[in-house]
Amino acid sequence: MLIKIYNPFKKEEDRPTPSSVYNWRIYFVGLISSFAALEIGYDSGFIGGTLALNSFRKEFGFDRMSESHSSFIISNIVSLFHAGCFFGSILSYPITFYKGRKVVLISSALFMALGAVLMLISNKDRGLGPIYAGRILAGIGVGQSTSIVPTFLSEISPPPIRGRVSAMYEIGWRTGDLIGFWVSYAVDENMSTGYVQWILPFAIQIIPAALYLALVWWVKESPRWLFSVGKDSEAIENSKFYRKLDDGNDYLLSEISSIKESVNEAKKKVGTGIAGPFLILLREPKLQKRLLVTASLYVFQNLLGVQSINYYSPIIFGKIGVDGTNATLFSTGMFGVVKYIATIIWLMFIVEQIGRRNTLLYVSPICAVCFFYIGAYLKVEGGAAAGRAALGLMYVWCFFFIIGWSGTPYIVGAEVFDNSLRASFQAINSMFLWLSVFFMTRFTTDMIEGMDYGIFFFFASMALISIPWVYFLLPETKGIPLENMEELFDYPAPRAHILVFNSLKCGSDILQDKADESSLTSNGNLKQETIHVEKVV
Fold first, then answer.
1. Where on the phi/psi map is residue 249: left (φ > 0), alpha (ψ -120 to 50), or beta?
2. For the Major facilitator superfamily (MFS) profile domain, which residue ranges apply (predicted)?
3. Residue spans per domain, the chain
4. Rounded to two decimals, what is the model's pTM?
5. Which tens digits make up the pLDDT trace of 359-371?
């Protein structure tokens, strides 16, 4: 019996693709973008633990506040960052419309770096004002990056590896998570209580922001955006750069032709004005449905509890029975390890193999079971064994949530709209993301106080509701070229992918047959043709 060895790097191609298309430049741009995500992940990893440090609480007088007032201030510190993210999402669209994707990347890096520096000014004499302002500015940068980075990566990546390249953004996020959790634990474990103990975690934010700002200048503009604004010559050069192909390559010619055709159709359909995407959204119910599906993925992501647990993990783990600041910080550090491992597995074995839709359907029931158990444990106040099981299921939930709901919304949201709509609708998706994050982080402490164990039943119920929503509304998108995404929504979601993918393969075979026939001379010999890309002046 032969044993088939699984190859996680096998690519499902809709057409013959030169190997040079899968080159280091694509992955290096993914790496650069991961520094933007690292900044986001670090914030979610470090802020909860740092705000719980006795040194921070003494510096700003939390030890003299009532518990309700202290919770209110902490919620403000956390949620102002997300308010900045929301407005950064709005700001990203006009910038990318007029100036392109790269300018938004640079702008996001500048805001992140400025915000990180500003937070360091805070102390007991100046108060929390610089932290508030710095978190808003950093949030604006993060909001811009979440709007444009997934869009940019989806535009420059070949279809067979688009999910994997986009997943590098998620890897950066989880790397930041991991570092942030353990920095909080390390300063609590190894440093004496004082100013340096709490300011150091804030200072480390500058590192990913500075790296991102330094490297983003190397990135070349998206060819799809350049074609959309009539800069065809530069678009062709950038296409050659990202594909590592010469002028006469058939794959390059085909891709450029497809992009230009899509751009021309979009201009006829949407127009060239900045308000065009929103006007067509009002006219087309099918487009409204598609945007509803993508935006809902971001909302479900947060209603399943991830941000509540990220930012308030010391409180959450304390509820389960982990006592003491050091113990809760260690538990949250292990939380970061689980998330990082799960993200690597998702990148290597799931995002392009199992796909986007199926993964969500597989993990949601598991997430629901985990939270139903934790809620039930807190309700009946079970013994030590039940408490250990609850803690274990928190990590089980974390693992399956990450491989399903953590990165998938970003990939799908950046994939399913055509070139003229992608930036504007991804900005809307990002607004829904940060609005739901703001809501959950701002009111998690209130939900814990008011609902107690019921907060876990709430998260579990949202996981169950997501299952029929995804099954009936979200088609699989892996391996489908961006220019053909609209076709997926013409069929029932469960069958859409196989129908569209097979039609693309059939079309590719027909075109190849015609090309082979046309290249034969009358005596059966191959006719040599020179194909070139004309420079557009």
1. beta
2. 29-478
3. 19-228+286-487
4. 0.80
5. 999 999 999 999 9
